[in-house]
């Protein structure tokens, strides 16, 4: 019986899997079956953590804004500040507000003054 040489398709598939797992440690970078399992696990984690990353950054931005707001008692709390921003149609997202809060705090006070200038200034002057 003559010897049959296999085609290149399976070898190409395994090479692709091995290339993906080349940065893993131990058997996870050497054994084809283990690499395939780790690849699935890595892709699942990456997909899950992309959503988690969005949540974590939003929480970070909110914490930074709240800290700066409460520091100099511009407002009593974060939720009231955001509510008034929307009410006055000053459309700044949380990412930008957090960057302003960290890099240029005077700008937050300018935003606060802008909120006061708009209609309803009497309410804020009575409260503070």
From TrEMBL:
GO terms for molecular function: rRNA binding; structural constituent of ribosome. GO terms for cellular component: chloroplast; ribonucleoprotein complex; ribosome. Coiled coil: none annotated. InterPro entries: Ribosomal_bL20, RIBOSOMAL_L20_CS, Ribosomal_protein_bL20_C. Keywords: Chloroplast, Plastid, Ribonucleoprotein, Ribosomal protein, RNA-binding, rRNA-binding. It comes from the Eukaryota. Pfam families: Ribosomal_L20. PROSITE patterns: RIBOSOMAL_L20. GO terms for biological process: ribosomal large subunit assembly; translation. Its main location: plastid. It is found in: Plastid, Chloroplast. Binds directly to 23S ribosomal RNA and is necessary for the in vitro assembly process of the 50S ribosomal subunit. It is not involved in the protein synthesizing functions of that subunit. Belongs to the bacterial ribosomal protein bL20 family. This is Large ribosomal subunit protein bL20c. The gene is rpl20.
